[in-house]
Amino acid sequence: MKLERFFSLGNSMDFSTKTAILAAIKAGKRIRDNYRLLHQMESSPQIKKERLEQTWIKEEKDPRTISSRADTESDRIIRETFLSAGNFVIFTEESGISTPEHIDTSSWKRVVVDPLDGSKNFLVGLWGLFGISIEVEEKNSALCSVLYNPCSEELIYAERGKGAYLLKNLLFENHGEWKTPVSISIHTQARLGESRIYVGHGKANPSVLARAPLVSMITKTVEAVNYGSCIIGLISVALNRLDGLISPSLRYWDIAAARCIIREAGGYAEIWSSDWKYQLTDAECAQADEKSLLSLVVAGNKLLFKEMVQFITAT
């Protein structure tokens, strides 16, 4: 199915969803191109050195907040795609808020973007462990979302009340044919003692993982993993490759799109503030900005989610 054919068949697909998918595809291609230029074998040491020098730390006190030309180019492509498409206000990790020159304040939508999650993985050559996240909000709730791994070419999208879908084996470089979207659901029923979960620590000091509730919970799992990319962890939960995820100290762009997708796939994904004591409502999440630091994110199947929440709220 050609890209144009896919969109022409998607009569029930919201225009915002089509725009998000298109933006992710275009940005993903640029990310892959940048990766190949950086890591291809024939690149000279000087070229690689120059490209690695085109990185910077966004927050001086946190060396993990690394960014690169790949981040900013992906950010630019996504912003331009939405700003040229209509009445969207763009909120991205790299460039903050962008507003179109002429906007209808009565009907605008907010787009929350992480243009490249897993920047360190990208820079050191960990193929497949970085991705793109785009969520479109309307009236303080998610309208649609896209998560995209540009290496595996797996794209997950969801629309409010319409479920979640996977597109894979995408041949975008050749403008080839899309596979038919496949409905996805979180069908794993693993309890905590049977589970494999993603455990991150976001912007927090790694010592946060020594907190008693997390230690008790992690030791009961079969395995706890960390891919260095929250988005890849969340894609893994949505596709039943992992049973759950827990991570303190995230930004809203880390979780916004995945929260919608996991919910639409039948799972649970919620956010806490105030040192893990207060669960945020959808309307409160929609007020998040670049300064908002989310205390804790928990996601998973119904049974596992409830168990994880019991552990973190026990103290």
Characterize this entry briefly:
This protein has 315 residues and is α+β, with helices and mostly antiparallel strands. The protein has helices at 3-9, 15-39, 45-53, 69-85, 119-124, 212-219, 230-238, 252-264, 282-285, 302-312, and strands at 55-59, 62-68, 88-92, 96-98, 109-117, 131-138, 141-149, 154-159, 163-167, 182-184, 196-199, 223-225, 244-250, 268-273, 278-279, 294-300. The chain has ten helices and 16 strands.
Structure, explained:
The chain has 315 residues and is α+β, with helices and mostly antiparallel strands. The chain folds into two domains: 182 residues, Fructose-1,6-Bisphosphatase, Chain A, domain 1; 121 residues, 3-Layer(aba) Sandwich (D-Maltodextrin-Binding Protein, domain 2), CATH 3.40.190.80. Helices cover 35% and strands 28% of the residues. It contains ten helices and 16 strands. The protein has an eight-stranded mixed beta sheet with strand order 4-3-5-6-7-8-9-10, sandwiched between helices. Strands 12-11-13-16-14-15 form a six-stranded mixed beta sheet, with helices on both faces. The protein has a two-stranded antiparallel ribbon with strand order 1-2. α2 runs antiparallel to α4 and α7 packs parallel to α8. The radius of gyration is 19 Å and the shape is globular. 40% of the residues are buried.
